[in-house]
Design brief:
Elements (H helix, E strand, L loop, with lengths): L1 H31 L4 H5 L7 E3 L5 E3 L31 E12 L2 E12 L6 E4 L7 E7 L2 E9 L2 E2 L5 E2 L3 E4 L5 E8 L9 H7 L17 E7 L1 H10 L7 E5 L12
Antiparallel strand pairs: 1-2, 2-7, 3-4, 4-11, 5-10, 6-7, 6-12, 8-11, 9-10, 12-13
Length: 257
């Protein structure tokens, strides 16, 4: 009996081993051709600064940091907006944002930016929004959960293109740009869908906002055109950095926030 069992085991092994060898060859070839890269496209990044696919650098070495921003932000940029009108000068408003992925598109968080001159004079900006591109930081209660700088910009509605790869916004014009943050710019342990959900303000059963978003988003860039515009308009705000956050304005109608 034992001899028969041993013989069957040998026959099974002889049949299986060639298939294992073939499978190993197929797996190796698939890895070389990048056929297994789909998993990597949905994975968070390492806890170190690394280049991102498509442009930009992941702030991985800053994961868990509190109050970190690539650019030196204007005063009040990370506080809830006040109900009074903003001073004259360039305006940056956060539009739609969320998480998206596709069969051939790397998973990412996207942010729509609305830009306006904020005065009677036109605003000229570089198409890259400064030499260092756009910076995005997302912070939770335990510090930075996602961040990158040098992110490229996709223009949806440029008001016009000037010589030297610049965008000109007329006094009554505006522009729409989109910035994408790959999931590789998320700190270890973070998931794109969850981060996107936590960027939204909580609401009650009546769809009334009841507080600030659990995660704070900051989008910023530094362009000399911003500083020149502020100076020409006599704005009390100085410097080249323009920033916006996802925080909800605080006022009489939002006193619960």
């Amino acid at each position: 009996m034992l001899d028969r069992v041993a013989g069957r085991l040998r026959e099974t092994a002889q049949a299986v081993v060639p298939w294992l060898a073939v499978a190993a060859v197929v797996i190796a070839a698939a890895q070389q051709q990048g056929l297994f890269s789909l998993v990597g496209r949905y994975a968070a990044g390492p806890a170190k600064a690394v280049p991102l696919p498509g442009g930009g650098v992941f702030d991985g070495d800053r994961c868990g940091s509190v109050g970190y921003h690539h650019f030196r932000l204007p005063a009040g940029a990370t506080s809830p907006p006040l109900p009074h009108d903003a001073p004259d000068g360039p305006r940056l408003v956060l539009g739609a944002h969320g998480y998206e992925q596709g069969p051939r598109t790397a998973a990412r968080l996207t942010f729509t930016l609305l830009l306006a001159p904020g005065g009677e004079r036109p605003l000229e900006l570089s198409r890259t929004l400064g030499a260092d591109g756009v910076a995005v930081e997302i912070e939770g209660s335990d510090g930075l959960v996602a961040g990158a700088y040098g992110l490229p910009v996709t223009w949806r509605e440029p008001a016009g293109q000037e010589p030297g790869h610049r965008v000109r916004l007329g006094a009554r014009d505006g522009a729409i740009a989109v910035v994408a943050l790959p999931v590789r710019a998320l700190c270890p342990g973070e998931r794109g869908t969850e981060v996107s959900r936590r960027l939204q303000a909580p609401i009650d059963s009546h769809h009334t906002i009841t507080g600030q978003p659990p995660y704070t988003l900051t989008v910023s860039f530094s362009d000399p055109g911003v500083g020149r515009s502020r100076a020409s308009l006599g704005s009390p705000e100085r410097g080249d950095v323009l920033a916006v956050s996802n925080l909800i304005p605080v006022g009489p109608r939002t006193s619960r926030v």
